[in-house]
Specification:
Elements (H helix, E strand, L loop, with lengths): L11 E6 L6 H14 L4 E5 L2 E2 L14 E3 L4 E5 H4 L5 E12 L2 E10 L1 E3 L1 E2 L4 H13 L4 E5 L15 E7 L6 H15 L7 H12 L4 E4 L4 E3 L9 H6 L5 E5 L4 E2 H10 L7 E4 L5 E2 L2 H9 L4 E3 L5 E7 L10 H11 L5 E2 L13
Parallel strand pairs: 1-10, 1-11, 2-5, 2-10, 11-19, 14-16, 15-17, 16-18, 19-20
Antiparallel strand pairs: 3-9, 4-8, 5-7, 6-7, 12-13, 12-14
Length: about 350
């Protein structure tokens, strides 16, 4: 069972998708059903909006979220009125969204529900902790499109990645992109306690900096690494050990650094976690071959990958072939098709 990889080990779990219609909602419903069979109370929230019958972006049919009596949910005041489940409101939080205030409630009568949540990372984590305090055995965060940050260790303790045919008509490309993201999630971490403290402080302050082998810090006078690669490259010395980048790591930054100096080969670039990398698999491999090394403060705990071989555009992969080939390339993480043998109209969500 999928829940066996989570329950008893982690309290807050995120589900993130490679794209819309990659199967997140099917994964969520599967976990809800397995939790019910074990007699567990689940807490649910989303980093966006989920549970609507028709996808508001792609205008395609989606599976709905079915919640059992006793479940705890965070959602907005507007979405609560669109749900068939009866929910007792326990708290009105101070978090406001375009869909209304975020509420926390307990399901009194089972039914379908649309879920939402606060926008900021800290607010999502605080809401998750509140659901646990109110009696949830485990909290599942449904990550929205382009919000893979919900996988960040500052928010969730473990992550499930949903991927599928919607990423590309080319199965090989889907596998390549999925394996790439899985590798980014498990980038090596800075282990030394003293080094971590220095780097955490720099990242928390949003400072681009270079740390030498004596752990002396040079904060660079640039607002962002996005356009500051040339300046970073110019300031790498023979005794430099780390380049600290507090925000996103993009292709242009690396190219600009490499144009300025070869000394980048002797340093590690450090970011907060793998969700901050916005570089495609081809460029990433080329940079590694040229000697680029990237580490993180916090690797992401990817516990499973779920597959959706159907795309809303009408094409699909052979489910068994897709599963077999994905497992061939990703061997250290469980890869599952939760609906193999039980597909209904190709709707994975």
């Amino acid at each position: 069972m999928l829940i066996d990889k989570i329950y008893g080990k982690y309290k807050i779990v995120s589900i993130v998708g490679m794209a819309k219609n990659s199967g997140k909602t099917v994964t969520l419903n599967h976990l809800i059903n397995e939790a019910r069979n074990l007699g567990l109370n689940i807490g649910i929230l989303s980093t966006g909006r989920d549970g609507e019958q028709l996808d508001l972006v792609t205008e395609t049919e989606k599976p709905k979220i079915y919640v059992e009596e006793g479940s705890l949910v965070a959602t907005s005041s507007y979405l609560l009125h669109l749900s068939t489940a009866t929910v007792e409101i326990l708290e009105v939080t101070g978090y406001r969204t375009p869909l209304g205030n975020i509420l926390i409630g307990r399901v009194k009568v089972s039914g379908y529900i649309q879920v939402s949540g606060p926008q900021g990372a800290k607010d999502i984590r605080d809401t998750s902790n509140r659901l646990l305090e109110l009696g949830a055995d485990m909290v599942i965060i449904d990550g929205a499109i382009d919000r893979k940050s919900s996988a960040a260790p500052s928010i969730s303790q473990a992550t499930i990645l949903s991927t599928g045919a919607v990423v590309s008509r080319d199965m090989e490309r889907v596998i390549e992109e999925t394996a790439h993201l899985a590798n980014l999630f498990k980038l090596p971490a800075i282990e030394d306690t003293g080094e971590r403290k220095i780097i955490e402080d720099l990242i928390s302050k949003g400072q681009v900096a270079i740390v030498d082998r004596d752990l002396d810090v040079e904060v660079l006078n640039i607002k962002s690494a996005l356009t500051g690669g040339s300046i970073i490259g110019e300031n790498i010395r023979d005794d430099s050990k780390y380049i600290i980048i507090p925000g996103s790591l993009i292709n242009k930054t690396l190219l600009d650094i490499m144009e300025r100096t070869d000394k980048y080969k002797n340093v590690d670039i450090v970011i907060s976690d793998g969700t901050k990398v916005f570089i495609g698999p081809g460029d990433w491999i080329r940079h590694q071959r040229r000697g680029v090394s990237v580490k993180v403060l916090n690797p992401i705990n990817l516990v499973a990958i779920t597959l959706n071989p159907y795309a809303p555009q009408g094409y699909h992969f052979d489910p068994e072939d897709f599963l077999t080939r994905m497992r061939h390339f990703i061997r250290d993480i469980p890869v599952l098709d939760l609906m193999l043998g039980g597909v209904l109209n190709g709707i994975y969500g």
